[in-house]
Amino acid sequence: MTERYGSTELPAADPKRPPAFGEAAAEPSPAPSDFFGPGEMGAVLRGHDWSRTPFGPVDHWPSNLRTTVGIVMHSRFPMLLWWGPELRQIYNDAYRPVLGAKHPRAVGQPGAQVWAEIWDILGPRADQARAMSHATWDEDLFLPMDRYGFTEETYFTFSYSPVPDTEMPGRSAGVLVTCTETTQRVLGERRVRSLRDLGARSSEAKTAEEACAIAAATVASNTRDVPFITVYLLDDHGDRCTWRESVGSSRARRPRRWPCRLRRAGRRITCGQPAPSSRLVRCTSWMMSHAASGRSSPGIGRRRFARR
Fold this sequence. Notes:
The protein starts with a strand and ends with a strand. Helix 6 packs antiparallel against helix 7 (208-219). By secondary structure, it is α+β, with helices and mostly antiparallel strands. 23% of the residues lie in helices and 31% in strands. A hairpin with a 5-residue loop joins strand 12 (281-290) and strand 13. The protein contains seven helices and 13 strands.
């Protein structure tokens, strides 16, 4: 056989012939799923049976889907692709921690199903991006996620961008999500701010009673970390506590006797009637914060005051 190049006939190239010296070797054709990239998620996506999903066989995926998936999978930043009218999702390794226990069941599933608990927040933003109006942007947005069987207080900064539909100009084929979780920073800044305010205002107190009132009022401004606070005073001997302040939840209203057993230096502390305010007392704040899991954790802060 010969190939015609202009008017000169040249021998046809033999695909089995090794390249001659100085001749570039022919590059092998890429595998259909090479755009899935390396890493754990690359292996998960390659092993997924896409023919049983609305995506269809990988060999039949349109070029814009292949290109966008390649961008997502080769990025080291948390990225997610919602594709099609149901916004079924494909995500990379960096996005896996965002899903928690939802991974790997979330692969190929509709976004409204995976994020049902916050879809009232995410859905309108996804619709806005799909309308091809403009990309969305949210910074430190509060999202009450259920990633491990209970509701978490989480914060994210993220953007939704439309992916153009090459077959139908003017319409979007999907939504590209770029995000980063800022929960630790937001919570840390908020808690440090509460401690700073508490320390700044503590110098205003002249008596133990005033210290209790200031502490309760200051902490009450941060109900996310401290849903309620009940403040008791210990007497001179440290074996009797007296109620002074309660703010927050109705469960923190003044009880006759605090339903707990406190021990200090091997002695049991009981809760009795208000002690004379002229005594030297120790202000002990019991801040009972209830986490989303329903458990409570006490925190103790002590400060000694003398009545002037």
